[in-house]
Amino acid sequence: MTQSDLRTQATEIHEQFTDQLDLTVEDVEERLDTLVNEYKVPTDEARRSVVNTYLDEAGMDRDQLGGGGGNEQVQAADVDAPEEWVDIRAKVVELWDPRADAVAQVGLLGDETGTIKFTKWSKSDLPELEEGKSYSLRNVVTDEYQGRFSVKLNRTTTIEELDEDIEVGDDSVEVEGALVDIQSGSGLIKRCPEEDCTRVLQNGRCSEHGEVEGEFDLRIKGVLDDGEDVTEVIFDEAATEELTGITLEEAKEMAMDALDTTVVADEMRADILGRYYTVTGPTFGRYVLADEQERLTGSVDADELLIKARSI
Amino acid sequence: MASTPTREVARRVFAREFNDAGYTFKESDDDRAPVYALLPTGERANRVFLVGTLTETEDVGEDSEYWQGRVVDPNGDTFFMYAGQYQPDAASMLRELEPPAYVAVVGKPRTYETDEGDMNVSIRPESISEVDEATRDRWVVETAERTLERIRRFTDADGTHEYVTMAREEYGEDVEPYRHSVVGALESMADAAEASAD
Q1: Which range marks the domain in which residue B19 is found?
Q2: How is chain A classified by DSSP, letter by letter?
């Protein structure tokens, strides 16, 4: 624990009590410093001890410690670095059987953005979390194992049950890669107008209802490839429009002018093939149905990789 | 879903390594079984994806159009590609594009033996599209990363990885040139970043 870390912790604690007590950051830091550097108390224990002291002084309960805790409020999908102190509002989606006595509870927390594993240590002496209930968890620490992130509850964590029921993001997946193919049946297509039949017509024919007057639609069946895996992605009308900037009306006009519907797919191909995208959405069979997509245009950092490449 | 043939992944490889991948093989005796080029760092490649600078196009056909395209990677190494009447989209792109231009190419490795007995490796493009510099940069870093992963597996593997073993047998132990490609490509990016920062 360096002095600047202590300072950070002191600042966080100071903020928690700034309304109740007449403290300076230096007061807090001194207390922490004494515990950590003189008495060799572990930092989180020191923090807990200092917080308790101030709670007593202010005549407050631990769960009265309100906002301004200094931690960033994160969502499950935002966690992307280990060893960060954060606050999270999430629902306990699943509880698993702890495999070790040291672990009191382990499972999955979820919010709108997705899910993340959590671990609660036995020695932290925290209240039980219940499956299906939503909580505000303050002062949890992020962790990483083999590229997967989790949060760990500790002695300083405060747990507050929420009245609201946090909605947990669906089973959507995120895929990233180069768009290496746009498959046939993409662009301006016609669908069967029969009730409950949305089959795509082939040469004006529905495989179920025969020759029909089709209804125009936009769709892209694309392939994202990251060099390791391929994922087939379907973009519906809205997603196709967002991806290509071409609306259904414009596509119809293009096809009308050219007396050919394939010009639409050709135009789209020229715009999007060979570019990199991130696509998020639920899976359907072997497809990912694109809910959100983003073209990756930002700069990429080569330096870290260069160091690795030079060192092996 | 055994009935649906799974699509082959597009490997990321710099030109130097790709052009050395002269050994090809099939995984089964079936006529329609995919043909793989064996990358010297120990991976099979039925398809590649590359982004580079198109420096030259030329119709080298005799009776009908047959377009050659040269695409250069950041190390100055060249990918050669050929598109004729059976690759109409790629052929028309090569006909129409004005070099120099950044292009993204998806294609299949093809090998042929020259009269001198050398193995030449080229690409039969499935698609060619004009892209921007940001896409090229992303490809360079991605390809460096993938190549580095293969090199690490090659040097770590205790002879158990199928394609590493195969690559050792066909090409030998030296993957150092491909590490140089990675370093060179990344350095060119760092240089470019510095130049634009100045």
Answers
A1: 10-193
A2: --HHHHHHHHHHHHHHHTTTS---HHHHHHHHHIIIIIS---HHHHHHHHHHHHHHHHT--GGG--S--SPEEE-GGG--SSS-EEEEEEEEEEEE--SSTTEEEEEEEEETTEEEEEEEEGGG--PPP-TT-EEEEEEEEEEEETTEEEEEE-TT-EEEE-SS-PPPP-S-EEEEEEEEEE-TT-EEEEE--STT--PBPBTTEETTTEE---EEEEEEEEEEE-SS-EEEEEE-HHHHHHHHS--HHHHHHHHHHHT-THHHHHHHHHHHTT-EEEEEE-EETTEEE-SEEEE--S----HHHHHHHHH-
